[in-house]
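User: Predict structure, ligand fe (ii) ion.
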Amino acid sequence: MNELIIKEKIQPHLSPKRFGHTLGVVEVAKKLAIRYHEPIEPVVEAALLHDCARNFSNADLLKLAQENAIKIDRVSKNDPSLLHGPVGVVIAQKDYGVYDEAVLNAIRYHTTGRKKMTQLDKIIYLADCIEPGRNYKGLTELRDLAVFDLDMAVLEALTNTLKFLLDKGQLIHKQTVSARNDLILRIKKG
Ligand SMILES: [Fe+2]
Ligand SMILES: [Fe+2]
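Assistant: Predicted complex:
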C-alpha cells in the first residue's frame, strides 16, 4: 500500500499525539534508510504501521493476542502494552494488506528488539527512540550516533531502555536482553 493511502487510513486509529509520533518515526526512518542503503518502501510501511495497535486497550490487546495465537509471556501479561507490536502485525496484515515478513518483523519487535535484528528492525527500533517528538537525557548524542554507526546507536538505545526499566524497578523483557547481548557479540566480532 502506498504511503499516502496508509497515512490517511491509519490517522483515525491513532490519537493526534500518536499520529504525530508516527510521522516523526517515518521521517527519521527514511533518513536512516538512505544513510544505510536500505530500500525505502518497506521502511516507510513499517514506520507508518509500527504503532497501529498502540491505542488499543489492554483488554483488547490480550483478546486479540489470544485469538491470533500470539504467545503471551509473563512480562507481557503483566504489561499488555508490550503486545502492541505482535498484535500490530495482525492489524497490518488484515487491515493494510501487508504480508512482507521483513516489514511484519520490524513491527513485531519494535518495542522489545530481538536477537539477530535485521537492518530494517534496527532502523524502526531506533527511529522510534529518536524521532523529533522525543525528549530525554542523552538524546542529542544518540541522534548524532545514529547517523554515524547504526549498530552502536541501537546498542545505546537498548541500553537506555534497560537502564530506564531498572531504575523504575520494572520487569525486563528477555528479548531486550537477547537483542543487546547479540548485538554486543556481533559488534565484537566485527
Ligand atoms: Fe510502539
Ligand atoms: Fe512508536
